[in-house]
Automatic annotation (TrEMBL):
Localisation per UniProt entry: Secreted
Species name: Anopheles triannulatus
Keyword Secreted: yes
Lineage top rank: taxon: Eukaryota
Signal peptide interval: 1-25
Protein name, as recorded: Putative niemann-pick type c2
One GO term of the biological process aspect: sterol transport
UniProt main location, coarse: secreted
Molecular functions (GO terms): sterol binding
PANTHER family for this protein: GEO08227P1-RELATED, NIEMANN PICK TYPE C2 PROTEIN NPC2-RELATED
SMART domains given in the database record: ML (SM00737)
Amino acid sequence: MKSCYYQVIFSCALVALFSLHSVAAEEINFRQCPGEVKCAFSDVSITPCPEAAEGRACTVYAGSNVTISFDFTPAFSSNELTADVYWTQPAIDLPFIGMDPAACKYTACPVTKDTKQNYSYDLNIKKSYPARQYDVKWKLIGENGNECCMIIQIKITKKGKRT
């Protein structure tokens, strides 16, 4: 009897966990960077981001961490990858301070042409970042200069002001 009870509790806990994950991690809108396309992206998500279900930019809190995760299929092979992240504007790209450029810590290396793989990174949103909406350019660059590049939107806000 106790065994059945624990199985029911465990099953309910699993359902709750998967339900929570589906609410917290939503696929977000993204666009390819201008220029030659060297990668296909899919399943791009930010956790947490309840706004994604409505197609809005993710609201992230200054002083918090978010996880960005995506699948990518490069049109090139490379033994190493570096990651560059920028606040992008029409006239200039400003580097995202504090980003770890060693992409192979967050995805499997070497990467193989036409092979889909996942990249996942915990991004620190510093308290010093001004509150506003940003286009964020995310690049994965191979050793021969080939790159995967996409642009996502985030909205930085101060604690307690999610909109």
